[in-house]
Amino acid sequence: MSEFKRQHPVSIFVSFFSNVKQLLITGAVLLFFGSSQQRGPWYYLFILIFLLVFSSISGFLYWLTFRYKLEDRELHVKHGLIFRKKRYIHQDRVQSIDLNAKLIQRMFNLVEVKIETAGGGEEPEFRIIALNRSEAETIRDELLYGGDEGEESAESDSPAAVPEGTEGEEETVPAEKKPSERKKKPLDYEWKLTGKRLFAAALTSSGIGLAATFVAAVFSQFQQFIPEHWYETAFGIIVQSSVTFILIFVLLVLLVAWLIRIVSTVLKYGNFSIEQRGNEIVISRGLLERRQLTLNRDRITAIRIVQNVLRQPFGFSAVYVESAGGGTKEEDLSTILIPLCRESEIQGHLKALVPDFAFERKLTGLPGKSMRRYMIRLAVPAAIAAAAVTYFVDYGALSFIGLAAAAGLGYWQYKDAGIGNNEQFLWIRTRKFARSTVIVPRRRIQTVEVTSHPLQRLHGLTTLEVSILTSITGKTFSLQHLGENQALACYQWFSYEDGRR
Amino acid sequence: MGSDTVEYIEPEKRPLPDRKISPKALPVWRIGAAIEFLISAIVPLAYWWLSNQIAFLPGWLLYVVIAAYISYGVFNIALFPKWQWKRWRYRIYENEVELLFGILVVRRVIIPMIRVQHVDTEQGPLLRHYGMASVKITTAATVHEIPALEESKADEVRDHIARLAREADPDE
User: Is B110's CB within 8 Å of A443's CB?
Assistant: First the structure.
């Protein structure tokens, strides 16, 4: 254990591919949106070769210079070619360790070790990108639960045996080594997403809009490559007018986008499982790429329950967590806790996973006068757009259907908006398209702000804004057009300055 | 938790924050707005130049642009600073800072002392010339500013908030 070791050589490939991927994405963006100057194939070939060579050299150097050593509850790491860095990660500083496996790692049965350290300054996260599973587990168990070196060899197959082993050893050498503060705790709660649920989640997953934009962008590029006459014979017969053509195009785009979403959701949330031990919630997911995420219950700043429009008829929702710290960059800054469950099951999950958040939530709706604000706010832009379309396009008057839809959505938003609180928690329900309920503990709220614009003041309405801390930046949840008294009551509820407490 | 209803202090009973910012903010803001006004003169000038170059840009639009430019100047230099200054209020309590500001959108914020990460004073060349500074309050999620206080007052406010924030009990 006292020798410095290198990672598994496959790490060369891993960093090579991640380099190439990054460069390709940059290149694709430049190609797609940049000017379409004509350049010979040699030009691109040259760039490609340069990228490949560059990536492989840097991958090799990374492997060559990165060395680590595990020593008595501490990980020593040396890396860097020109700027040499040394890093010691001691058990006391470790927040959580996750073992991820992307496609390449999985092919070679390897894992990536992601270590999150406390108050880590610029680099709260540290990764070793390719290790044998047993080696990785040795590191994890040493850094998380280790107090003695003897147990390492024995434990890799049977993690369950660790707690007793650790405790036993500590009693014999109490003076020399500080007893490890954490021990592998027994499993408190476990939940798995069933295949049926996964499929339902995939079918009803939102975010089609994003995928659709992407598909539309690809399609519109695609058109350039299809010979025009081919295109005309294929579509010319069916397509009488441009309107039908546009409709078909839109439907096609939506369909493809939907399929993409289904596949990507299945890949992302396949084999989803939650394990909870004491304060730690470990989320593992992914069909091809396995990802692990450790959440600390004490650092959860808010819980969100989101029900998108497709899921509403079936009574399904998803539950998200906002957490201060806990590298969730890949997950749009908030972590999915339960990808799909019935409305009636939410309370049970919350009770088991985050009992503080499990309580009955009474909602107070918004005053009647705010209904108008919700409807007008959506209807006015829709009306302007519809007027413009009517003016410029044949059959454009049809777009006034959109106006009715916008007003309807506004009414829906008004109906679903609400707020409530008890002594320690505030909850707000809003709808953009999806209906989302956010539950925030008072002690996690950074600031509360009440704002009003002139139209709101006309009707005595206000907007309430509640800011919390999430993994990287702050996040603000706002509820629009609630009555002045409602907002001020909430404002006063948050205030630290009165005799109430 | 326990009971579902919480006894509120009647919202009306909460006083608005009552400390004003320095009246010298007015000339500073006005000078700032005037400089901005001069710089943005580039917009009508650019339009004038373009309409000479490109035939289809109508000449009458130039007058519209100039009119918009002048009214923008009047609002920004003469009216907004005054309204802004009249509205601005702050109050530092033992456990929180409260701010009230904004012309069109009126904002009222509570910043609890235990959430304050750091406070600093800032001074641009204009503020320095008038012997003023602004106080910046940072929480983990947000940043707030009291824009113009007498220099000595700003230092006092900063140190005061810093002390209260330090003393604030993290467990409430």
Answer: no
Same-domain status, B111 and B162: yes
Q: What is the largest CA-CA distance in chain B?
A: 75
Dump pLDDT digits (tens) for A344-379: 999 999 999 999 999 889 999 999 999 999 999 999
ipTM for the whole predicted complex goes beyond 0.85? no
- Using CB atoms, pick whichever of A359, A454, A489 lies closest to residue B11: A489
- CATH, residue B112: 2.30.29.210
Domain termination residue (choose one: B35, B57, B83): B83
Indicate the domain borders of chain A: 5-184, 369-414
Q: Do A496 and B1 touch (CB under 8 A)?
A: no
User: B55 and B32, same structural domain?
Assistant: yes
Q: Which of A467, A489, A501 sits opposite B141 (nearest CB)?
A: A467
Average pLDDT on B4-9 reads 42
Q: Check: CB of residue A303 under 8 Å from CB of residue A320.
A: yes
In a domain, B16, yes or no: no
Tokens 């503080």 correspond to: A356
- Give the rounded percent of residues in chain B with a pLDDT score beyond 70: 90
Find how far residue B14's CA is from the centre of its chain: 23
Judged by CB atoms closer than 8 Å, whether chains meet at B105 and A424 is answered as no
pLDDT one-digit tens code per residue, A402-415: 888 999 999 999 99
Low-confidence ranges of chain A (pLDDT < 50): 1, 120, 148-180, 328, 332, 499-501
Is the Cβ–Cβ distance between B116 and B138 less than 8 Å?
A: yes
Q: Which helix (H) or strand (E) holds B18?
A: none
Contacts of A443 in chain B (CB under 8 A): 172
Q: What's the order of all strands across the beta sheet hosting A189-192?
A: A189-192, A273-277, A280-285, A291-296
Supply the angle between the helices A41-65 and A10-33 in degrees, to the nearest 10: 150
Contacts of A364 (CB under 8 A, 6+ apart): A418, A419, A420, A486
User: Is B2 domain-assigned?
Assistant: no
- Mark yes or no for CB contact A447/B7 under 8 Å: no
Using the beta-carbon criterion (under 8 Å), do B1 and A474 form an inter-chain contact?
no
Q: How many CB atoms lie within 10 A of CB A465?
A: 19
Per the structure, the count of domains in chain B is: 2
Do B73 and B131 lie in a common domain?
Answer: no
The shortest C-alpha distance from A468 to chain B (Å) reads 6
Residue B7 lies in a domain: no
Instruction: Assess if residue B9 is contained within a domain.
Output: no
Last residue of a domain, one of B35, B55, B83: B83
Contact residues on chain A for B7, CB-CB shorter than 8 A: 500
Question: CB A495 to CB B8 under 8 A?
Answer: no
How many whole angstroms separate alpha carbon B110 and alpha carbon B102? Answer: 15
User: Are B1 and A457 inside 8 Å of each other by CB?
Assistant: no
User: Nearest C-alpha of chain B: how many angstroms from A174?
Assistant: 32
**In A, which residues are within 8 Å of B6 by CB distance?**
421-423, 493
B107 and B53 in a common domain: no
Of B2, B8, B172, the CB nearest to A443: B172
State which residues form the domain around B72: 26-83
Same domain? B77 vs B98: no
Interface with chain B: mutation pick from A465, A497, A500, highest number of B CBs within 10 Å: A497
Binary contact (A448, B144; C-beta < 8 A): no
